[in-house]
Design brief:
about 90 residues, mainly alpha, 2 helices
């Protein structure tokens, strides 16, 4: 990092990523709830219900992992002063 303005810019960028990831996770979680309610009447072995449940759970898990990664990167910078690796 070159200076305080660069760090401030990076903090804002990472915070934006945290906020975006949080919103995506909340949306995926809400979608999972809708799917579970929508297919609640189908037996657990029903192929349509199983596929929808698995996809919703996978989307939620992926969104949660992205949120966790964004929080980790932000926390590393704020608490430890470590920049995220270049991608």
């Amino acid at each position: 990092m070159k200076g305080p303005q660069d760090r401030q810019h990076l903090e804002q960028e990472l915070l934006g990523q945290v906020n975006t990831a949080a919103q995506t996770y909340r949306s995926a979680k809400a979608q999972t709830k809708i799917i579970l309610e929508q297919y609640a009447d189908l037996p657990l072995g029903h192929s349509d219900g199983n596929l929808a449940r698995r996809q919703a759970a996978a989307n939620e898990a992926m969104a949660l992992e992205r949120y966790r990664q964004a929080l980790h990167a932000f926390t590393d910078l704020i608490i430890h002063g470590r920049q995220p690796p270049e991608s």
